[in-house]
Here is the input.
Amino acid sequence: MAGSSRLFVFAVLATIALAKRASEHAGDEKHNARALQVSIGPIASEMTAAFRRLEHVIADQIKVRELHEVVWATAEALEKTGFDAAAKEIKKNVDMLSTCPDFQGEGIVGACLAAEEGKCIKEAKNWRPACAIQDKSKHKPAVLADPSPSMGIFWFTRTLWFMAEMFEKVSSGQTMAVAGTSAYENRIQVAFGKCTMCTDYVTNKLVKSSLAGGLADEDKYYAMLGGKDEAVNDMKAFATVALPVIRSIFDLLVEHNLDGSNGY
Here is the structure.
């Protein structure tokens, strides 16, 4: 698993720990009053507004600069409500887009990923290549240079996909714990190596158990978030707008043989 993924795992754990600390101190009147103001609604609605800019744009025609602005705005929304660790990792990964061709001008995502694929094909001639494209026939994931635009896209799409899918599942009636664990397995776990005697295995187990435990008491979460109905409606709105955009961008990675998922 690449270095960026390890930092993402830290972000997930830090986010869960933050939420658990908030619920554990709910008896403190002042703290509880502040917690009730920290609603998933404002977070999700700001994130939804950002993604609406890309809602009707074909993925490979999205301007890289605009994608950067949208993802950055999403991270800012998270940061405002205390999810600093997750926001920091999203920002770090989206900043990797800055080396895409014509980033400051009219550069588009499709051209950026085509350039990334071309670089990795050329690297195959080197004794120690900096990156390698995915070999689908042998079920070998891509090896992505870190930092690189492809690495950045790989991780910020997986991060946001995890969040949006969890929101979608919650809005369809699943508990937070079930939705979070399922979304984690679908979008994050596959990035870990398939092994039983390695760091990836231990980290994966730790994150899964922390995620399930951290989201188990959803009544406390909804109380902290200002009420279930509003929160669920805003989760659904974000998932409806963002999921198609995120999926289509990740599909471009796969199309250009740049999917670095170790659990392919």
